[in-house]
Every structure is written in C-alpha cells, then in structure tokens.
Fold this protein.
Amino acid sequence: MGVEVRNHPLVVNPEVCVSGCTCGSEHPVPQVTLYSGRDACLVMAEDCRAIYGTKPVLLIYDPQTYAVVGVQLQQQLEKLGVSVTPFSLPEEPHADDVTIAEVRAACKGIALVISVGSGTINDLGKYSAHHEEIDFWTMPTASSMNGYTSGIAAIKVKGVKRTLSAVPPQRIYVLPDVVQHAPLKLRQAGFCDVLAKVVSDIDWQCESLLFSGGYCGLPAAMMAEVENSYSECPDEIGRGDEAAVIGLFHGLLISGVAMSLAGSSAPASGGEHLVSHFWDMREPITGREPELHGLQVGVGIILSTACYQRLARLGRDDFPRHADQLFNMTAARIPKIWGSYADEVAKQFHNKRDALLQFDDLLPQKWDELQTLFRQVQPPEYFADLFVRTGAPFNLEAFRLSKDEFMLAALNSRAIRERITVLDLAAHAGVLEAATEDALHLLG
C-alpha cells in the first residue's frame, strides 16, 4: 500500500489495490514510512540527523502537544545536533489563510517541517510544506482524525472551508502510549471521523451515478480490510484499551491513504462533513467555542443517515419537481447567513447550479438504482448507539450547539461546497426538514 512498516504493522492486503479497483484508473500510491514504538522521538531524531544533517528543521506544535511530546522530541533533535526552529501555535489554533501565511513565512530556508499534533497542526504543516516544496514529517498525538496520510488539507480561505491539495508526510512517527492515552473526546472524534466513510462512500456513489461516473470501489475495499478493528470496539475505545485505540488509529491511517488513492476526499467526506465545516465557518459570526471536527462529523452522520432513511421510503413520483425554485430559495438565504462571507459561499453554491437543475429529470430516471444505494445505509439509531457507547456525551448540548444552529446547518450547509451529497438529494426530494427533525430527536 505504499506504507513501509518499521515496527508496528499497518495491516493492508496488497491485493486489494488490484482487486478492489472498479474504475480501471491508475491510483497514486503515497509513499509513507511508519515507525511506532516507545523510542519514536529518538528514532525520529536519528533519522532526521542522518537525512538532513545540520540543516534547519521547523517544529510546529501548540502548548498541549508540546507538553505531551514536543518538548521531548525537541530535546532529542537538539542533542543530536539538528538545527531546530520552533513554531508555537496558540491554544486552539485555526487552519486558515492567515495562519498559513505565517507558517509559510517561517518555512523560508527550512529543509523539513515536522508537525507535532493532530488535525489543525497536521494540516498547517502539510499544506505549508507542500507549497514551499519542502519535506514534511509528522508525529501524531491522538487517534482523532484521518488526515495524517491524506493528500489534502482542510483550510479556511476567505472564511470558507476548502479542501486543498497537499502531499502526505514522507514519515510518521508514533508513540503508542501517547495515542492510547489521548483524551476520550479525541478518541471519540476519530471514531466518528472514520465511520463517516460508511455514509460518504454512498454519497460518492450517488454523485457518480448521476453525473461523473468517477466512483471507484478501491477505497471502500481497503477500509473493509480493517473495519472490524474499530467498528466493533466502541466500548473498548472509550475505555482506552490499547488494541482498540491502536486499531482505530490504523483505521484512520488507512482512511487517509484511501483518500490519497482516490485523488480526492470523496471516499471519507460527504454531506456529514459539510455540517461540520458549516459550524467552523460560522464561529466568527456566532462566537461559538470550536468543537472537535470529528465530533461535529458524528452529528453530521446522524443527519445524513436520517436523510437516507427518509429517501429509502420514497417512490420515484413522491417528490416535487422544483429544482430551479429550490436553488433560488437556498441562494437567497446566503447573504443573511454568511454576512461578509456571502460572496465566497455563493460562488461555491453557484458552481453546482447546473447539476442541481438537472435533478428534476435525473432523479426519476435513476431512482431505482439510487434506492438500491439508499438501502445500504444503516439507520441513524445504529450510529447514535455506537457513539454513545464510547462513553462521552453525544448530544447538541455537549457540543455547544443550539437547536436553531443545528437546523440552520442541516438546511443550508449543502450551499458551502459544490460537491453533490445526500443533503442535496434530500432537499430536492422534500425530506430534508423531516430528516432534520429525526436527527434532532436522537441528539436532543
């Protein structure tokens, strides 16, 4: 799978690369070296010294990740004579264009960027290193997201969350104890994030059936190889069981590789991710304290699966044909919702206008095939039970979300990206509001 294992095995059947592909295309395989062990800081420092000598290295962290492992790594690097340039992010850093500009400025004259942390820290390092054309390594601190091995980074540009290209790290060094004992909310976030692929894969298949024809079964086949290591262990993940947490972590790594092979985030990011991006983008407007991306994705999974459940009950003649009117109504709400960000959001939504206006004809034509896909999705109660079993609260109150803000996202987050998802299907079939109420019942 392009992952060289030096210690802790990342188990993937190489034959899946051939047998799992259904599109006939060549898939770019990321070359990632994984090292997992208690001496990961020392091994990383030794490798860094051997490859880069005394060339300057940029070390990115925040106060939490520095205390957990960053200080130890910095000491090991400096002990071996590596020239370390520290870059300390603030608590609760943001992956936005302003911070990217600061990190890229710090990359001048640097030979290697090392991110110590998870989501935001990883994306900032990966994206900056990619665009400065320098190497990138990472030391994860939690099984909280699937972006470690992906070829993308989630960056907020002019207030709009964008999925942008970035090269995966050449090397990943893992301290198993640090990952295992990360806070429960981080483990729960990763559990939600990796389970999103169950929903997003169907989103991708629906879009492919209606428009692009670009679906490939390889990412789903890859995930099926490792799914049991985490999907059947919510209680153990909640308790911090070593095998379960490391199984989750490896599932997240494979999920990132799957996105890289697909050349997009489609295998692991659909409508359920849009609601999370919606809330992230609204933070400057609402003043809401940020929540972990994966936890918000878990809320989005409940919404998306409620949409699929409603769609599966419909017949081909059970929905209105009002694509043009619905597009105009949704577009008209953008200025009120987004204020100064409205123009950027409107551009994204307008980019899929032509596709949405075809729904009146396309949905009836493809309804039987779509129904087959809808019925493959587990009901929202199934996922709600899994998330609750991890042991952390899973409801709107715990995530500081009001009912009104949830409904606003459910009904309007499809406008922030041009990707076609189940939220578009549910809106055009006239069941999005009912599905939102179904989800609210589970999240109240």
